[in-house]
Design a protein that fits this description.
Low-confidence stretches: 123-131
Largest sheet: 5 strands, mixed, barrel
Number of helices: 14
Structural class: alpha/beta
Strand content: 15-25%
Oligomer: single chain
Mean pLDDT: 93
Bound molecules: S-adenosylmethionine, iron/sulfur cluster
Strand order of the largest sheet: 13-14-15-17-16
Shape: globular
Radius of gyration: 22 Å
Distance between the termini: 35 Å
Length: 431
C-alpha cells in the first residue's frame, strides 16, 4: 500500500515538473513516505529526518516532506518535533502537495494537511491522474480497490491512520486495469487493507469475487493477485473465483496472527483456529498446489507459553509457503496498548526468533520441493544483485532467478525448470 502511495506521490510531483533521483544528495525535495504499523518504523521516520536535515547544510533550499501513516497519526506534532520539515500530508492528502508548497511560501505555519476526506474513496490520483502515476515496474502494477479498515483488531493502528473502509467504484478499477493492459502490463495486484470486504460500503452489488470475474477477461492481463485477505471474510465465492478464473493466481496471503483461540479472541480477529483450518482445507481441496502465506504476531499481551506453542503447532500443521512474523508492538489508539498483561520485550523477541527459525525450515523445504519441476515464470527484469541474471515469479509468487539469454525479454512468460532452491528464491533454466 505504501509503495503504491509512493507511486502516487511521484506522479503528483512529476506533474509539478519534478523527476525522480536515486540519491537524496542530488534532490531538491525529499519526501519520507512513512509507516506506523509498528513502533520501529515510526522511530525510523524521526531518525531518517535528522539525517536528511543534515543535507540542508549544503543545500538550504532543500524541501523536506513527510507523508503516509506517521504523518496522518502525528500531524502538526511532526513540525513541532522537527521544525525543519516543510510539509506534512496525510494518507488522504497526496493531491494537496502542490497547494501545501504554495501555502508554505505565503504562510510557513500552514504546512500540514491531514484532513480525512468524506467517507468515500479518494480516487483523484489513481483515476483522474492515472496517466501521471509513476509506476515502479513495467510489467506488474498495484491497483487500489479499497482503502481503510473497519475491523479494529485490538493491536492495530490502521483503522485510525487509514480511516474507515472506502471501496473504489468497480468501473474505475476496470478502466485502470484496461489502461495498464494497453500499456503492456501483464500482472495486476488488487490492493486493500482488507480486500475481502471490497464493495460492502457500495451496497454489496460487486464483491471481490465478482470484481475478479470482471477483470479476468482483460486482454493482455495474464495474472491477477490480491492482498490482503482476512480469514473472517474469506469465503467460498472467493475460493471458486480463484479456482475457476484462469488469470487469478494460485496464491493467497491469509494472516493468522496466532494459533491460540484465546489470543485470537483478545485480538478481536473474529475467527477461530478451527474455522481458519477449515478454510485452508477448502482452498487446498479446490486449488491443489496453491501457495498460502501468513502473518504471525508474537508476544501479544497475555500470550502464555502454551498459547505460543499452539502457534508453533499450527505453523507445522498448515505448512505455509512463507510467514511474516512480527513482535507485538504497542500502537497509539489500539485497545491492546492498555491491556495489563503486557509481555516483556525479551520474551516476545525470543518467541519471534523461534517462529522465524521454524518457518525458515518449512519455507526452505517447500522451496526444495520445487526442484525438478517446471513453472510458468513472468520475467520481471534484470536481477538487482547480479546483472547476468533475470528474475521472475511463479504464479504462486515464488521468486526465480535464471541466466540471461538472448531473446528473453521483460514481460515474457516462460516455462522454467527449477534446479536449486534457497530460503528466499529458486534458480532455474528455461525449458
Ligand atoms: N489487514 C491485514 C490483516 O489483518 O490480516 C493485515 C494488515 S497489517 C498492516 C500487516 C500485519 O502487520 C498484520 O497482519 C500483523 O501481523 C502486523 N501488525 C499489525 N499491527 C501490529 C502490531 N501492533 N504489532 C506487531 N505487528 C503488527
Ligand atoms: Fe489492522 Fe485488523 Fe484491519 Fe488488518 S484487519 S488492517 S490487522 S485492523
Amino acid at each position: 500500500m505504501n509503495e503504491h502511495d509512493t507511486e502516487k506521490i511521484a506522479g503528483v510531483l512529476s506533474g509539478m515538473g519534478y523527476s525522480l533521483t536515486d540519491s537524496p544528495d542530488k534532490a531538491d525535495m525529499v519526501i519520507l513516505n512513512t509507516c506506523s504499523v509498528r513502533e520501529k518504523a515510526e522511530y525510523k521516520c524521526y531518525s531518517d529526518l535528522g539525517r536528511i536535515n543534515e543535507l540542508k547544510k549544503s543545500n538550504p533550499d532543500l524541501i523536506i516532506g513527510v507523508g503516509g501513516c506517521v504523518a496522518q497519526q502525528e500531524g502538526s506534532n511532526i513540525v513541532k518535533k522537527a521544525p525543519y520539515v516543510d510539509l506534512v500530508f496525510g494518507t488522504d492528502n497526496i493531491t494537496d502537495i502542490p497547494q501545501l508548497l504554495e501555502q508554505k511560501k505565503r504562510a510557513p505555519a500552514d504546512r500540514v494537511s491531514t484532513v480525512r476526506r468524506k467517507r468515500k474513496y479518494q480516487n483523484k490520483v489513481s483515476d483522474t491522474a492515472a496517466a501521471s502515476l509513476k509506476r515502479s515496474h513495467t510489467v506488474k502494477a498495484w491497483v487500489s480497490i479499497v482503502d481503510g479498515c473497519d475491523k479494529f483488531c485490538t493491536f492495530c493502528v490502521v483503522p485510525f491512520t487509514r480511516g474507515r473502509e472506502r471501496s473504489r467504484q468497480p468501473d474505475d478499477i476496470c478502466n485502470e486495469v484496461l489502461g495498464l493492459a494497453a500499456n503492456g502490463y501483464k500482472e495486476v495486484t488488487l490492493l486493500g487493507q482488507n480486500v475481502d470486504s471490497y464493495g460492502k460500503d457500495l451496497g454489496g452489488a460487486v464483491s471481490l469475487a465478482e470484481l475478479l470475474k470482471m477483470i479476468n477477461d482483460t486482454e493482455g492481463i495474464e495474472r491477477i493477485r490480491f492482498v490482503t485477505s482476512h480469514p473472517a471474510d474469506f469465503d467460498d465465492k472467493l475460493i471458486d473465483a480463484i479456482s475457476s478464473l484462469p488469470s487469478v493466481c494460485e496464491s493467497v496471503h491469509l494472516p493468522l496472527q496466532s494459533g491460540s483461540d484465546t489470543v485470537l479472541k483478545r485480538m478481536k480477529r473474529n475467527y477461530t483456529l478451527s474455522g481458519y483450518r477449515e478454510k485452508i482445507k477448502r482452498l487446498r481441496d479446490a486449488i491443489p498446489g496453491i501457495a498460502i502465506t501468513t502473518d504471525i504476531i508474537t508476544g501479544f499481551p497475555g500470550e502464555t507459553e502454551d498459547d505460543f506453542n499452539l502457534t508453533l503447532d499450527i505453523l507445522t500443521e498448515i505448512n505455509f509457503d512463507a510467514a511474516f512474523a512480527f513482535q507485538y508492538s504497542k500502537r497509539p489508539y489500539s485497545p491492546a496498548r492498555l491491556y495489563e498483561d503486557q509481555i516483556p520485550f525479551a520474551v516476545g523477541r525470543e518467541r519471534l526468533n523461534r517462529v522465524i527459525e521454524l518457518q525458515n525450515s518449512i519455507t526452505l523445504s517447500k522451496n526444495q520441493e520445487c526442484i525438478g519441476r517446471e513453472f510458468d515464470i513472468l520475467i520481471e527484469g534484470e536481477s538487482k544483485k547480479d546483472k547476468g541474471k533475470l528474475t521472475g515469479r511463479t504464479r504462486t509468487n515464488k521468486l526465480v532467478h535464471l541466466t540471461k539469454k538472448a531473446g528473453i525479454q521483460t514481460g515474457d512468460i516462460l516455462s522454467v525448470k527449477i534446479r536449486s532452491a534457497t530460503l528466499s528464491a529458486l534458480t532455474g533454466d528455461v525449458v
